[in-house]
């Protein structure tokens, strides 16, 4: 008889976005005239930049001719892209990373979910609370949980690090020593960023404890302040303790095109094994490469025109972020984020629960956001707004929230 992977049964329901969609559907059914604006989902809305469209067209044409046709991509990704990444994202920032430490993929969601496969089942993981849910769910699927503790309402081998207002929504070093530490900066959902000296403490801690940091830098392009590192490899010693995840989704609008990469330095060794080689084995066995045309589009992100156009695109979203942050703050809301990230994290007024505030905003202002509790217990009493809408819709949404 076939049995199933029972670890999947331990997953908590992923109700957040489906519940939001249901509530909006029901509200619209009752109020067909309502013009609902969503600042909820973290997806981009601006079209691909012209430099990327040009690169796509050119690559599509190449695929139509025998002399320039490409089949399977090399396991790690095309050298033209890996070399461009190294030059622009790492060498330009003084980080020592080589092209054979870059693994091109179809995005950071896959990589953040898959990377745990190269680690032992007994490892203790530490995650921020609130958190991008993929880190915990994929470890639960893999059975990396330990026993369930009913009084703490969590698994023994999953350490939650509360990110609270009093600490600028940054995690503190955990009491129980973890083996794998997931950090995401700039952060989704809180929009917080970490200074280099703070991140250095995590790198030192991981090296001291022989732990590995999985550093999700999907929102790196939104950093505006000096002193905020764009890569964990800006910290001394990160090559011996950190894996970095990057994405083209939010810096270049590739959420539908799909492209990302993971950096695994060769100096990262555990139990005598070079983790880069383990990941190369995993990547080569289970992944057959991002499409050639998409990798060419990724290369165009770093061209002079691409850089210029994308700076403008990211600037467009950050103008929304600044407007949301300053307008809500001037109206007396407690808000953070939105300076180095496209997310604004607001405290719900009058101690309302995240869902009560969601309902009030939907009914009173026809605006949709994301309840903070959907990202973890420490998100209760908070609400996430995204800067990914159009400027006009975002202005209108904020006007409505303020008049509420
Ligand atoms: N990591 C974080 C923190 C995210 O918020 C997201 C998407 O919202 C991703 C990864 C996924 O990125 P990608 O589109 O490259 O899969």
Quick take:
The protein is α/β, with parallel strands linked by helices. The chain has helices at residues 16-30, 50-63, 79-90, 108-114, 134-141, 196-209, 249-252, 275-286, 292-300, 304-330, 354-365, 391-403; strands spanning 37-38, 102-105, 125-129, 148-149, 154-155, 158-162, 180-184, 212-216, 242-247, 260-263, 269-270, 273-274, 335-337, 343-347, 367-368, 370-371, 382-386. The longest helix is centred in the last third of the chain and has 27 residues, at 304-330.
Topology as a string of helices (H) and strands (E): HEHHEHEHEEEEHEEHEEEHHHEEHEEEH
Q: In percent, how helical is the residue content?
A: 25-40%
In CATH terms, the superfamily of the largest domain is Type I PLP-dependent aspartate aminotransferase-like (Major domain)
Helical segment count: 12
Question: Which word captures the global form?
Answer: globular
Question: Which descriptors apply to this entry?
Answer:
single chain, 404 residues, alpha/beta, Aspartate Aminotransferase, domain 1, Aspartate Aminotransferase, domain 2, 2 domains, seven-stranded mixed sheet, four-stranded antiparallel sheet, 17 strands, globular, binds pyridoxal-5'-phosphate
């Amino acid at each position: 008889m076939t049995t199933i992977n029972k670890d999947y049964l331990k997953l908590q329901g992923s109700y957040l976005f489906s519940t939001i969609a249901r509530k909006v559907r029901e509200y619209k059914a009752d109020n067909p005239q309502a013009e609902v604006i969503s600042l909820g989902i973290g997806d981009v809305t601006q079209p691909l930049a012209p430099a990327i469209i040009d690169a796509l067209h050119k690559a599509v044409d190449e695929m139509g001719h025998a002399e320039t046709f490409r089949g399977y991509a090399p396991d790690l990704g095309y050298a033209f892209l890996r070399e461009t990444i190294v030059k622009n994202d790492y060498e330009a920032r003084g980080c020592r990373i080589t092209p054979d430490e870059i693994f091109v993929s179809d995005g950071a969601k896959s990589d953040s979910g898959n990377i745990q496969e190269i680690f032992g089942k007994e490892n203790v993981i530490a995650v921020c609370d609130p958190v991008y849910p993929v880190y915990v769910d994929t470890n639960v699927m893999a059975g990396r949980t330990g026993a369930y503790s009913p009084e703490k309402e969590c698994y023994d081998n999953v350490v939650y690090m509360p990110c609270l207002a009093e600490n600028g929504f940054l995690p503190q070093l955990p009491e129980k020593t973890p083996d794998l530490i997931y950090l995401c900066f700039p952060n989704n959902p809180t929009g917080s960023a970490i200074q280099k000296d703070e991140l250095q403490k995590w790198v030192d801690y991981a090296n001291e404890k022989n732990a590995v940091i999985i550093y999700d830098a999907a929102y790196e392009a939104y950093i505006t302040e000096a002193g905020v590192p764009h890569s964990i490899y800006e910290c001394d010693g990160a090559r011996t303790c950190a894996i970095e995840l990057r994405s083209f989704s939010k810096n270049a609008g590739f959420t539908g095109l799909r492209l990302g990469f993971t950096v695994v330095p060769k100096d990262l060794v555990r139990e005598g094994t070079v983790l880069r080689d383990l990941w190369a084995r995993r990547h080569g066995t289970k992944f057959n490469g991002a499409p050639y045309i998409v990798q060419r589009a990724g290369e165009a992100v770093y061209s002079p025109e691409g850089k210029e156009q994308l700076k403008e695109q990211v600037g467009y979203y950050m103008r929304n972020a600044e407007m949301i942050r300053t307008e809500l703050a001037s109206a007396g809301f407690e808000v953070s984020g939105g300076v180095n990230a496209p997310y604004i994290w607001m405290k719900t007024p009058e101690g309302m629960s995240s869902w009560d505030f969601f309902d009030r905003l939907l009914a009173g202002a026809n605006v949709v956001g994301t309840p903070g509790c959907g990202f973890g217990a420490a998100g209760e009493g908070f609400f996430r707004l995204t800067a990914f809408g159009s400027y006009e819709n975002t202005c209108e949404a904020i006007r409505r929230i303020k008049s509420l």
